Fold these 3 entries.
Entry 1:
Amino acid sequence: MDVNVRNLSVLVAAVVLASVWIGQGQADNEVVFPMPPGPMYVKECGSCHTAYAPGLLPARSWQKMMDELDNHFGEDASLEEPERLAILRWLTDYAADSPNANMLMRRIAASIPRGAQPQRITETPLFKHQHDEVPAHIWKRPKIGSKANCGACHTRANEGRYPEREVRIPR
Amino acid sequence: MMRLPALLLVMTTPVWANTPQQILDTLVQEARQAQPGFTASVARGEQFYRAKHTGGKEADSCVSCHTDNPKAEGKHIKTHKTIEPLAPVANKQRFTDPAHVEKWFRRNCREVLGRVCTPQEKADFTAYVLSVK
């Protein structure tokens, strides 16, 4: 086969397309979730705990949680109705089983039994699997203290970013 | 379409940028309706801030999460998330949004005291936190 401009350009195009495809594949594997726009979600849902990404739970879990805000894990987290409805809409729009879900979110949704409405992200199968190498004494460090404290190690958790290379475990 | 409720909310929520002093003045006026002649007391506010209260749930004092120094970063007793300083001298966002102030009095008084705080308690508390330099 002769090397000419035509088949050389086909080769170049194939390499470019393959690298774009591989590049996007890596991005897909990154643990990054879409977050609601604007400051309200982080303000209202990130005061007492990390502003968890909606994609960490299915919509039916968020629906139950937002119906019980006056007793939210034992605390009063009640909101005015317009805020409650806006946040519920975002949680549903970006939930693990929403049409906007990325591959990771679909894996989370698939791992949760159909009838279940888990409330604690730390009790979902994917969370347990991703953290099974973290020994108990690390969780007890004063700057971590609780499995709910995502931001202690995942430095950009409030932006929905949980990639392993951004993890910084405090001493 | 999806974002419309949120957009309407942003457009219809009045953003009153208040000063901490204006918020304190409003709380004092509310306290005067309950108790004519009331004046806010920094000393009573500090006592309330540091006291161990009964009737609440896990946190029994303001100190439980906000530490004994309102200028310091606090920590949520259950989630361990960092809480920004409470005193406006250390955190300019504090006591600038009346709705935010009311929301947190409602939630935290229920948590710590198991009831709503009186207007007098809220005015004293605010006078103390604003007095911290």
Note: The beta strands of chain B are 74-75, 82-83.
Entry 2:
Amino acid sequence: MPIFSKKAAPVVSSPPASAPDWAIHESQTLLYGAQKKAQNILAQAELEGIKMASESGAGIKQYEAEYNQQLASQIKVAEGNFEASLKQLTAQYAQFTTQLQGQTQNTQAAVEELVKTHINEILLNLEQKLMDFLTQSQQKSSEAITLELKAAQDMIENYRTQQFKLIDDNIVAVLERTFSLVLQKKLTLEDQLDLVYDALEKAKAEKFFG
Amino acid sequence: MNQVLTIILKETYTKTSLLRRVRLAKDVANFALFHLQDPNLSLEITLEKLLAATPAGPLKTQVEANKDWLLSLGDNFFKQFDKSQINVIFNQIQSEIEVLKSITIYLPFEIYDRDIQSLGQWFKKNVGQEAIFEFAYAPDLIGGCSLSYKGIVKDYSIKTRVQLNRQALIQELQNLKHGSS
């Protein structure tokens, strides 16, 4: 059985689960430092007690009493120190937690702002791409329609040209027929003979008769 | 050229008429030489006797129709033939007719004798005394005429002029169309 019972270390509330790793690490370092200090004090007191017990056999009881008194005193001091350290640590931790909370809120706000900006950029970019796509699609559609229209116009123009050619040929045939009918009726024998003499003179001029 | 043919050609313009008159002249000469057998008879009496001796038919009709022309040949024309040479002369004439300048005229109207004479004189004056022509009726020519000579055809008709101006006519119609649209 140990000479004195070790007092259990007070439970320190653990940092919130959402705290960052570096914050948890810092708080654990602080706790570890306090425990280590307390253990050192206890170990030193125990060593001194053993030493005193071994040095004096006769006056052991007195010494033991002194020892116990000293030990109690040392324990009390240690406990006091420990509690003070703990209080300070707790206060520091609370302050740190508050600060951390503030920082977290700021970070969250910044992240939210960043996300918002990013989303806005994405939306803007998307809108621009959509507009470009729509413009290109519209342009392509317009070009396709223009080509189709041109093809249709060409086809109509070809058809029209062919029809006009047929009409022209028919008109000329009708005109020739009309000439024939009208002139045959209208030309007198004298006119006909004049035309024949004109033709003969022309043939003579062309040396048709040799 | 044979002298007989030259005389006949003087007032003869178409090939048909020439062939007919040569044949007629031969018939009259044969009648005078072989039937009348009197070289002192005048041509007029000879023709009267021929008409009297000939039954109604193509020969009589031809003689009556060409009596004036036959008389225009004169009494001496028939006195140049004798029995031994008449066939030789007319055979020679037939051969010479084949090589005469014969021009075919395609006309879109019916032509009268007086106009034939007028045309014939034009040919005699402008082409040559030996020139003869033939008519063919071609109503589709509308006006003017078409000529055929030595296998070459030249068309001077209104129909051809219209056809030559066909493209110009179409162009004018197109201009009208464009102008009105």
Note: The first helix of chain B runs from residue 3 to 10.
Entry 3:
Amino acid sequence: MSTADVAHDDHHHGAPTGWRRWVFSTNHKDIGTMYLIFAFCMLIFGGLMAMAIRAELIFPGMQLLSPDVYNNIVTNHALVMIFGAVMPAAAGMANWMIPLMIGAPDMALPRLNNLSFWLLPIAAFTLVTSMLAPYLLDFGTVDTGVNTGWTIYPPLSAKVGASMDFLIFTIHVLGISSILAAINIIVTILNLRAPGMTMMKMPLFVWTWLVTAFLLILVMPVLAGGVTMLLFDRHFGTSFFDAAGGGDPVLFQHLFWFFGHPEVYVLLLPSIGVLGMVIPTFSRKPLFGKTSLVISMAILMVLGLIVWAHHQYTIGMSLGTVTYFMIGTILISIPVGLMVFNFIATMWRGAMTFETPMLFAIGIILMFTFGGLTGVMLAVIPADMQYHDSMFVVAHFHYALIPGALYGLYAGVFFWLPKWTGRMYDEKLGKLFFWTNVGGFNLTFFPQHFLGLAGMPRRIIDYNVAFTEFNVMSSIGSFIFGISHILMLYIIIKCVKGQGEKATDQVWEGAKGLEWQLPSPPPFHTWATAPTVK
Amino acid sequence: MSSAEETYYCPEPSHWPIVAVAGIFGFTFGTALTVNGAVIGPYTMAAGVLILAYLFYGWFSDVIGEIGKGYYSKKVDISFRQGMLWFIASEVAFFATFFGCLWYYRNVASDWQNGVGYLGSTFKYLYAHLYEAKEILSGAQEALSWTANNGHVNKGGDFTNMGGLGVPLINTILLLSSGVTITIAHHALLSGHRKTLINALGATIVLGLVFVCFQAYEYGHAYASLNLTLESGIYGSTFYLLTGFHGFHVTVGAIMLLVVWARCAKGHFSKDQHFAFEAVAWYWHFVDVVWVALYIFVYWL
């Protein structure tokens, strides 16, 4: 096999240089880095939109924005955060860590991997086009901008101008990107594990990504199908979502949430995986009940696929149907509760230390559980009839997604930053970031529970003066929350520039696993020969 | 590290992913422009399609070259196979969506909109007064059966449903036989009978192309004689959605078969290394199964 030898020598000479290194990359670490940088840019973009929303809502009446612009920003804040920030950040960590953790030389299909990433910037470009279309492009029709919210329900979404078409194609491109990335991740995990790395020996982060990728392959095509039908309704005269033509606008809601609910687990599970790495490390104990965690994840996946219509209690489904969806939804608290108890049991009697990743991990357990409990409240039909489309829902899903998804990613960033850059981050600044961020987050969203219970609707630019005090608190909190991310950027840049203490290979005293046997930072190519796991 | 059996082939930096991104961007962005009547739209779309054609040619040529140089170990082959299987899984989900919609339109939509049976219970208790006022849901009221709706304000006009016999039946026979011929080709490949392989694969392609032609004829007939169009209410919408996406997949599959046929003729495949052949065969069987489901649920039931 001399030719293979030549090829082998050819491409192990180290990193290519210049722009080609990034644009033509086939290296999982570089692609992971690009994913993370893209995600951070989108986090800032989406965060600025969130701060614009809160600046508008700080007082009753109109402050800064017109209603159409406000609606447009509400829509795009959600899309940018979900598809631009959280999913790419999780995918970036998967790219970086899965091959290191399972002893693989790279992702299974490296060129496809680069395609998955580079589709994201053009999706972002198309999304920005959609946002600006009402102001920049003139197609001879009235275009209000996408004022439907991220759920793009017809009939309103069938009537929006050209900006909706750009959004539909943004979703298509994002869908292609996610499906290709998911295929790559599954194949890597199933095919490229080092000898001896059995499925049950895989780190929890790898397990969570296996389940996530599987979910993506199942549900992304459903969203693609739904928005394609919407496109046909808008331009080719079909009647899919038009009741007068024999169709049904509510079917779009079913399609959307058949994607949308599992999407919540797509956002959540990788972060649960990070928890499964961080908590044992800083408790200096093995993960408690890993098998049961894996099983509960599988149950979560199956249940997550069959409970979508709890987002639609108020559409007038039959009593039997809503009852089924209520029971299914409440059942989900069993596997999720089991995960939480497993993490607490891992910490129990451990020799715990509280570095920044661990602070975030504990924060997740407290605040995500709180978000989960309001979820149980919302799952109960008669209660939901009151809470539906109120600020209570906004508070609920931000308590689920910011701790559940975003803080898991923050924990991951601080946990693996020394491995990625070879430098320890500034622990003092890290802790300061944690406390300002968590403080800002709670000040933003905790009052929104009360606003919702008192009857303030969500997604509306103006509100009754009775809601002023809590809204002022919430807006101030959101500015603290938003601005605290500058600190995070500063901490990361310091590490990347090589300032700070040099990290050891193991980095953390309690860290175990293949990835910690490599140097920090790892060389450009790792595990060219697979290690043997005992 | 001494043989391809032990090292996994990690390709060098490649420009193909970026070409793919350019093609996908041109096509999607161009389509968005086109449906809104922008003049540059069709050109952008066409540029995207051309770039994609160049992409597939170039990328796959690279891969074929790498196979020729013996870079791929057994493990790489397994990666490709698993990748293709998961891709088909996502396609299954895509078609399942449309079949699910068809089921919903037939069995759920009109009952729950009109307050019929248990699905309509909420409607009956909460909105019966609106039902009596006959104002809000007037359109839906008149939608008696899902096949009899001519579209919003009768925009499609009266139409005739597509029958299950004739062209669709011939098409079913065509596709099912093509599933047999590709299996014959596969066995011929495994047992080293090249002539049978090339003939049987050629027959598969011909059957596929004839299928596409018949499908095009059927569409022409539907538009010209039956007045069955995209605007013919939900029946026309679902009919064209399901058969249209399937027809597109058959076309793509036939192109893939053509490429594989040419590669068979050049002697690219061996008994042990013929991933592309199997991938296309799987894809073809998938398209085949979708058609059987289509024939049963769209044309028959």
Note: The two ends of chain B are 59 Å apart (CA to CA).
